[in-house]
Amino acid sequence: MLIRSISPDIFRTPHHHAAFWDWESESSELIAGTEMPKELRGAALKRKAEFAAGRYCAAQAIRSLGFNGPAMVGINKDGSPDWPARIVGSITHTDGYVCAAAAWSTDCLNLGIDSEKLVEGKLAEEIAGTILRDDEARLLSNLPLSSSQCLTLVFSAKESVYKCLYPLLKDPFDFQDLRLLGIDSKKGVFRFQLAKAINPDFSIISGRFAIGPQHIHTAVELAARH
Questions:
Q1: What are the extents of the domains in the chain?
Q2: Of 60 and 49, which is predicted with more confidence?
Q3: CATH top-level class for 3-106?
């Protein structure tokens, strides 16, 4: 059973749905009620359960829009969610938490959301070099946040930016192609610069974040007029 959670206060669109869950005890029920794509039929139980939980929340977000068609979100060849026509959205799941957000494409060009448990200890040391640029590490040193919070925040924010931009650019890019311009810890806002050689139309991207007891949540929403 998914237990409805209050979504973090980082969304401009009101159409989102978040929940806590225990995948080990609730996977069978979730999977049984979800049409599993052929790409995942041989996947591990946890992967199937994460897919089912994410699609459940996505369906709730879509229905809250007043969408009249089937609130089904498939899977593209590249593994990204395949949203119904005229709808854009994003899904995130981490251990024990899942969230989805949706919007009409006439209102929102695209959006990306991400939630991460705090990255700490040896794992933080191992992945810091792939997530942070040298100039970003210096910028983060001035924030009133722990090193674990800083690393997790940048990681999650870059994930949200990627989820938002990749469907528009149709071309993968690396975390090193995103340069942190600033983080306002009081307002919960971050700004990144995307390498101009990739696409000058999306050179500066802003988003919002919230820091919870166990998770850091980020969201990027591009208005249709962008």
A1: 3-106, 114-223
A2: 60
A3: alpha beta
